[in-house]
Amino acid sequence: MGELRSIAPPFVASGPCGVAVRTRLKHLTSDDEKVLRLVGAHLGSLASKDLKARCRDGLSQSGEAWAVRKRELTPLSSSRWAGSITKATHDQWALARRCQLAHLQNLEAGIRTIRHRLSLPVGQKGTKGKPGGYRSAREWHAKSRRLHVLEDRLAGVRADREAGIVHVVRGGKRLARTRHHLEAAQLTESVWRQRWEAERWFCQADGESGKRYGNETIRISPEGEVSIRLPAPLAHLANTPHGRYVMACRVVFTHRGGEWADRVAADRAIAYRLHLDTGRDRWYLSASWQLPPTPSLPIEAALAHGVIGVDMNADHLAAWRLDVHGNPTGSPRRFSYDLTGTAQHRDAQVRHALTRLLHWSRAWGVKAIAVEDLDFASEKTREKHGRRKRFRQLISGMPTGKLRARLSSMADQTGIAVIAVDPAYTSRWGAQHWQKPLTTTTRTTTRHDAAAVAIGRRAQQHPIRRRTTPPPHDRSDRAGHRTVQADRRVPGREGTRPRIPGPRTRSVRAGRGANAGNQNAQHRPGRSAEHETWQQDSLPLSLQERCGPEVLKSVRIAA
User: At what angle do helices 400-412 and 343-364 cross, to 10 degrees?
Assistant: First the structure.
């Protein structure tokens, strides 16, 4: 049996560092839409040229080169528009570098797995930690060819990374590839072209604290009036002084509207983004701002009222409430969702399930929710699971990374702390120690419910293994001690039971528990079960001592 890996201690997840809200631009006039399209197309072309220049610079990028690019964009837009474009370019290039590193690590993991399996005999079974050999000689040959393909890809990615080359597509690689498969995507060329141009538009501006309403480029007043600072080539479209265009619509932020209004009134920085949803033919406005870092709640204070353990699965969240001692109370709850369909649909399903979970937590007054610190980045590789395509699709569709971040963001507004625990062995040990004891004639405890209990107990830093019942009195010597009571190295483990005042049971009155520390009443070897102080002599008695002299004399006469 292999050694168990070390378990990381639980920790309180950090809260959100920013806020983003969205609303729809309603009642836009034809002039408003025309201006928005022209501004987005013009700034989008500038953003594409700036991204091309940034990718050309590669690793030789410096602050001076950034300033040069910004000065070149300023006459074609404005200083603030140029600053937003260069910052967005920098963020996009940095994201491409992180994705490149993840792809590099994925290729290395796949190559290691293939090399290991190719070194084993065909048909050899694997262990729990490592896969075995391939099933047939045909599969072995196919994987040996795939190994050369992956090694060539790895060499190319390494060369690009060392040279600082990244591959970025403004508008998205998936949408670009859809152009060659319009029939499969059920799109016409004109519809695809419209969507492609809209994705490449650029109409977002960073905020500035101390400026009017927190943003000089895209300004929104407390009454909801939207005005845009037009780029220099489009200044002739302005309908107000200073090259600004005021729209006819009024916007209202329903979610976090009070926070947004407070920041606008205090002239604090707010970033805005205008974008078109081509599928619905609607314009939307997104507002975002940063939150000051808040100190994390101590884990002891978060667990003062118990905890709710949550186990994430492919189609539901299994939750169980635990008291402060780690005992499951009440009945388990299941919050179902559907992770099929588009990304927006999956995200909405997860948000709805988390909302119901938080409402249930608030109803019971619990201030902590324990979740697993999951990351399937190393589990999604094709080479690790081989033919288990359905399983790879299953774990790839589970938003494990987004779950904790979204739960932390939503729980921050309700005063509930999120505790992340190590996911090692929670499902296995939960099913082993808690599934059967928690199953009754009216309730069937699933493996996921038992895992939720294990997660909650690990957050409370209790052992997952439950306290077993003591052996019966008639089998005490044969059954031995409880498996989860006291370690053999604990001092005083074999000592006497401490004297506790008062009755031990309802049938024994107070003052009658005098035998608690009496070794004679414990049925130990060398001890009597009576309360007398005498002990039997260890030497054997003679026949005269046992029978007496008269009985011994009669025995001799008869003989």
Answer: 50
What element of type H or E holds 254? none
From residue 376, give the alpha-carbon distance in Å to each of 165, 448, 547. Answer: 27, 18, 85
d(CA 549, CA 559): 16
Task: For residue 96, give Cα distances in angstroms to 199, 213, 425, 430.
Answer: 18, 33, 35, 40
Tell me the per-residue pLDDT of 347-373, one tens digit each, with 9 for 90 and over. 888 889 999 999 999 999 999 999 988
Both structure tokens of 100: 């490149």
The CA–CA distances, whole Å, from 207 to 36, 141, 188, 202, 264 equal 19, 58, 38, 16, 11
User: Cα–chain-centroid distance for residue 489?
Assistant: 38
Question: How many other C-beta atoms lie within 10 A of the C-beta of residue 39?
Answer: 23
Distances (CA, A) of 72 to 43, 46, 54, 77: 13, 10, 13, 10
Q: What CA–CA distance (Å, rounded) separates 44 from 77?
A: 11
On the 0-12 / 13-18 / 19+ scale of CB atoms within 10 A, 417 is: buried
Q: What percent of the chain has pLDDT over 90?
A: 53
For the chain, give percent helix, strand, coil, nearest 5.
Answer: 45, 15, 40
Span of 2-11, 33-42, 256-265, 518-527 with lowest mean pLDDT: 518-527
Least confident of 136-150, 338-352, 370-384, 544-558: 544-558
**Tokens coding 47:** 């953003």
Q: What mean pLDDT is predicted for residues 89-108?
A: 93
How many CB atoms are closer than 10 A to CB 326? Answer: 22
pLDDT at residue 296 tops 80:
no
With a CB cutoff of 8 Å and minimum separation 6, the contacts of 411 are: 358, 369, 417, 418
Q: With beta carbons less than 8 A apart as the criterion, state whether 375 and 323 touch.
A: no
Strand, helix or coil for residue 290: strand
Q: What is the 3-state secondary structure (H, E, C) of 67-112?
A: HHHHHHHHHHCCHHHHHHHHHHHHHHHHHHHHHHHHHHHHHHHHHH
Q: How many whole angstroms separate alpha carbon 155 and alpha carbon 163? A: 12
Residue with tokens 């393909």: 149
pLDDT-based confidence at 508, cuts 50/70/90?
low
Measured CA to CA, the distance from residue 267 to residue 222 in angstroms comes to 11
> In angstroms, what is the C-alpha Rg of the chain?
36
> Measured between alpha carbons, how far is 438 from 330 in angstroms, rounded to an integer?
11
Range 343-352 burial, b when 16+ CB lie within 10 A, else e: eeebeebbee
Contact 328/453 with Cβ under 8 angstroms? yes
Least confident of 129-133, 141-145, 262-266, 347-351: 129-133
- CB neighbour list of residue 351: distance below 8 Å, 6 or more residues apart: 406, 410
CA distance 470 to 424: 29
In the chain, the N- to C-terminal Cα span, in Å, equals 72
pLDDT tens-place string over residues 257-285: 999 999 999 999 999 999 999 988 999 99
